Amino acid sequence: MPEKEMIKTVGLNKSFGDLHVLKDIDMTVCESDVVCLIGSSGSGKSTLLRCLNFLEKKNSGSIFLRGKEIELKNVDVNTVRQKVGMVFQHFNLFPHMTVLENVMEAPIHVKKIPKAQAAKEAKELLRKVGLGDKMHVFPSKLSGGQKQRVAIARALAMKPEIMLFDEPTSALDPELVGEVLSTMKELALEGMTMVVVTHEMGFAREVADWIVYMDEGRIIEKARPEDFFQNPKEERTKEFLKTTELK
Amino acid sequence: MPSIGHVFKTLIDSSGLFFDAMLITLQLTIVSIIFGIIIGLFFALLKISNISILGYISDTYVYLIRGTPLIVQIFILYFGISGIFLIPDFWAAAFALAFHNGAYIAEIFRGTIQAVDRGQMEAGRSLGMTKSLTMRRIILPQAFRRSLPPLGNQFIIGLKDSSLAAFISMNELFNVATTLGSNNFDEMTYLIIVAFYYLVLVALLTWLVNSFERKLAISDR
Question: Predicted ipTM?
Answer without folding.
Answer: 0.91
